Amino acid sequence: MRNLVLTYGSGAERLARRISQISGAPLAEVKRRQFPDGEQYVRVCGNVSGKDVAIVQSFALSPDSLLVEYSLIADAVRGMGCRQVIGVFPYLAYARQDERFNEGEALSAKVFARLIEASGTDAVYTVDLHLHRFRTINEVFEVPATNLSAMPLLAENYLRHSPGGRVLVVGPDSESSQWAKAVAEVIPSVCTILEKERLGDREVRVSDLSGGMCSAAVIVDDMISTGKTILEVLGKLKESGVGRVDALVTHSLLVEGAYSKLREGGLNSLITTDTIDNDYASVSVAPLLADALLRDFASDR
Ligand code: R5P
């Protein structure tokens, strides 16, 4: 334990405090402010000399500015003589642009990873990274990287409040099958994976449901942004006569009134985590991240 110290960016301060409480690793506070011209200032307060410093930062909603903040904190702790910088990113941005879909586009997932590494990051931990065309996190990062999953925790939470019986687990698209299958291992269920066509930033079409229905269904995805994906699947399930539909989602970006739209659409509940600070999180990933950090950095090496 002596070697691990936590610190945080503004994207994950609350979560960093939880990880610190659970793991017992001390938390170095960060003072931040913005100059009149918009530049950021950070100052890390605490003893990190000779320590492995885990910087907890989520890159939701203003990822570019949060990346600069992360880089400044990483440089600060390096300047204070830390031994290693561990990037703990409960939510990692830019992962969905994992291909140059059209000529002239950037391969954003790789660019974001290179920028994190260029900030002097020695190891990375994240949760339910949007892995699709890159099959593993090690194809994205060159430094050692660990992708944890909150799906078993979300499924266990669902089971605690479910009426029982067999449930239909639905993944909206092919990439969601990894998360839907993880949930289906915990919940007595049948699992179906739909096909999704993205028509624009706020417009998607999903394929029709086929096969036998259950009286309850859960839609499983890694993230909700506008809510359009979940809404489309919810509509199909309701049309098919499914009475109770819940959504299990790790990362709740919930932009443009997504939560209200889902509730108005008849969603029974959104079971989600605190990888991104939000009002609806019923599952914390703090124990998951604390365990991983204690396992890998708790010794007095
Ligand atoms: C993309 O494939 C992701 O897994 C999510 O399905 C997507 O980002 C959700 O976005 P939205 O809520 O805007 O439909």
From TrEMBL:
<dbReference type="GO" id="GO:0005524">
    <property type="term" value="F:ATP binding"/>
</dbReference>
<keyword id="KW-0418">Kinase</keyword>
<feature type="domain" description="Phosphoribosyltransferase">
    <location>
        <begin position="154"/>
        <end position="251"/>
    </location>
</feature>
<dbReference type="InterPro" id="IPR005946">
    <property type="entry name" value="Rib-P_diPkinase"/>
</dbReference>
<feature type="domain" description="Ribose-phosphate pyrophosphokinase N-terminal">
    <location>
        <begin position="5"/>
        <end position="120"/>
    </location>
</feature>
<keyword id="KW-0545">Nucleotide biosynthesis</keyword>
<dbReference type="GO" id="GO:0004749">
    <property type="term" value="F:ribose phosphate diphosphokinase activity"/>
</dbReference>
<dbReference type="Pfam" id="PF13793">
    <property type="entry name" value="Pribosyltran_N"/>
</dbReference>
<comment type="similarity">
    <text>Belongs to the ribose-phosphate pyrophosphokinase family.</text>
</comment>
<dbReference type="InterPro" id="IPR029099">
    <property type="entry name" value="Pribosyltran_N"/>
</dbReference>
<keyword id="KW-0547">Nucleotide-binding</keyword>
<keyword id="KW-0479">Metal-binding</keyword>
<dbReference type="GO" id="GO:0005737">
    <property type="term" value="C:cytoplasm"/>
</dbReference>
<dbReference type="GO" id="GO:0006164">
    <property type="term" value="P:purine nucleotide biosynthetic process"/>
</dbReference>
<keyword id="KW-0067">ATP-binding</keyword>
<dbReference type="GO" id="GO:0016301">
    <property type="term" value="F:kinase activity"/>
</dbReference>
<dbReference type="GO" id="GO:0000287">
    <property type="term" value="F:magnesium ion binding"/>
</dbReference>
<dbReference type="GO" id="GO:0002189">
    <property type="term" value="C:ribose phosphate diphosphokinase complex"/>
</dbReference>
<dbReference type="Pfam" id="PF00156">
    <property type="entry name" value="Pribosyltran"/>
</dbReference>
<dbReference type="InterPro" id="IPR000836">
    <property type="entry name" value="PRTase_dom"/>
</dbReference>
<keyword id="KW-0808">Transferase</keyword>
<protein>
    <recommendedName>
        <fullName>ribose-phosphate diphosphokinase</fullName>
        <ecNumber>2.7.6.1</ecNumber>
    </recommendedName>
</protein>
<dbReference type="GO" id="GO:0006015">
    <property type="term" value="P:5-phosphoribose 1-diphosphate biosynthetic process"/>
</dbReference>
<dbReference type="InterPro" id="IPR029057">
    <property type="entry name" value="PRTase-like"/>
</dbReference>
<keyword id="KW-0460">Magnesium</keyword>
